[in-house]
Amino acid sequence: MRAFSPHAPNRLALAYANTYSVGMSSLGFLRTYELIHDQEDWAAERFFTDGTGMPRSVETDSPLGDFSAIAYSVSFEEDYVGLVQMLDRAGIPARREARTPWHPVVIMGGSCAAINPLPMAAFVDVFALGAAENLLTAMLDAIAEEPHRDAVIARLAETPGFFVPAHHQPESDDALPKLHKREIGADQMRKPGHLPVSPIVTPHTEFANKALIEMSRGCPEKCKYCWATFGMGKFRWHPVDFILEGMEQVRAITDQVGFVATAVGDHPEIARILHYANEQGFRSSVSSIRIPAVKEETLIPLYESGARSITLAPETGSDRLRFIMNKPIPNAVLLEKVRLIFRHGFTGLKLYFIVGLPQETEEDVEAILELAADCQRIMVEEGRKTGIVGNIHLGTNVLIPKPYTPWQREPMADERTLKRKLAHLKRGAARIPNVTLGTMSPRQAIWQTYISRAGRDAAEAIERVARGQKIAQALREFADRVHPEVFQAFPRELRWHFMRTA
Hints:
The protein has helices at 20-23, 27-37, 80-90, 111-115, 132-145, 149-157, 186-189, 227-231, 240-250, 270-279, 296-304, 319-324, 331-343, 362-383, 415-430, 442-453, 459-466, 471-477, 479-486, and strands at 10-16, 42-47, 69-73, 105-109, 126-128, 162-163, 179-180, 211-214, 216-217, 236-237, 256-260, 283-286, 309-315, 348-355, 391-398, 435-439, 499-500. Helix 2 (27-37) packs across helix 5 (132-145) and helix 14 packs parallel to helix 15 (415-430). Among the domains are: 10-180, Rossmann fold, CATH 3.40.50; 183-307, Transcription Regulator spoIIAA. By secondary structure, it is of the alpha/beta class. The strands form five sheets. A six-stranded mixed β-sheet has the order 2-1-3-4-5-6. It has a four-stranded parallel β-sheet with strand order 13-14-15-16, with helices on one face.
C-alpha cells in the first residue's frame, strides 16, 4: 500500500457508520482503504461515528463536508442510523434530493448495499454492488473526471455494478434490466494481489494487535437462513501460497494473525496454514468453524498457537429442525466434535443458536437446553483428565428472514412468542453449571427485519431513530408499515429482485 499523502490530488472520505473500534475490525473496510491508496493520485481519509459535532478524519482532522465524495462501508443494517447521523452532524442534507451541486456524492458499499438498498435509497446517491476490487477504479475515475456531483452520479448510473436511485426506479420501471453484483470470482482469487490482509494493525479494535487475513469467500453449506451462502457465490478459497505470503507481509508489525471467512475451516490446506503460522512464531486464531470442519489436524495447531476457545453454529438443538434448515448434521456428530474439542485441551466453547425458525416447536427450543447439557457433560468428563473444567456460552439470536435466502418470504415469529422462548432458555441455561447464555432483543430483531426487507418508505423511520427516537417508539409509530413487512409472508414479487447477487 502506498503511504498516505495529505497532498494527493484526489481525496476520498472513507466512512464506517460505527465506532473506530468496530470499523477498524472490518477487513472489508481496511481492504478498501488499501485499494484506494494503490490508485495513483488518490488518498483516503477515514471517518467513524466516535465523538460529537462535525465528523473529522483520522488522518488530517479534516471535516467530512470538505470532501467531494463520501464512501460508506456498511455490513450491518443497524448502521443505517449511524450513516444518517454522520451526515446530520456534518451539515450535509441526509435526503439526497435536498443536496445541492456543492454537496458530496454519498456512496454506500458493503454487503448491505447488495442485500436490499431500497431502505437507504432516500439517503444514498450511489450504491456499489460488489467487491471494491471490481468497482473502485470506475468509481474513482468518475469522481476525478466529472465536473460536478450530478455528472458523477449520472456516469455511475451507466456503469455496471452500481445502483443509482435517481436514475433506476425498480419499483415502477418494468423495463429496468437486472443489475448485477460484481463479486470476486475464483479466477481472480488465484491471481496475485487479491488477498485481503490488514494494512493497519491497532490495539484499539475488537481484534487488538491482530492482523486479519481472508481465507475464502462463500460457504459450502446452503443453510436456508443465511444470506452469505446465497449472496456471496460459490465457495472459493485463496491459494495457500498467497496466504503464507500474507503472513510474511505482517511479520514486522505483529505476531498475531486472525484467519477470517464464512467457512475458515473448509480451506483445503487449513492444516498446512496453521502449522506454518506456528512454525513462524505467530499466534493464530480463526473465526467460527463449520461443524464438519472440526478435525484433529485443525485443532492441534490451533491449540499449540494458544487458542483455547472454539465457536460452532449448530443453530438449533434438534436434528429435525436442523435438517429442515438444510444443515443435515445430527446431534451425534456434533457431540463427537465437541468431545474432540475438549479432549484437545480447549476450555471455551461458543455455540450459536437461532430462535423463531419456521416449523419450530416448543420441543425444538427445549432441545437447545438438552444439547447444551450434553455438551456440558462431555466438557466435565474430558476436564477430569486435566483437572480443568471450562465454560460453554450459548449465543442465541432471533431469525431475521433475509433477502435472497430460501426463507426470504417467511414472516418473523411474533414478539410475544419469542420473548417466551428466550425466557425459557434463560431459565434453563441458568440451571446448567458452567453454561452462560446471551440473547438478542426481539425488538431489535423486529427493527432489523424491517429495515432489511422494507422499501423506500422505511426512510422516515430510520431518520427518526437517527435523530433520537427510541426504536420501540418508532416501531409503534410506524406499525402500519412495519407489521406487513415483518409479520406477514412476502408476496410473489420481491422488491429486491431487480439485482442479481451472484
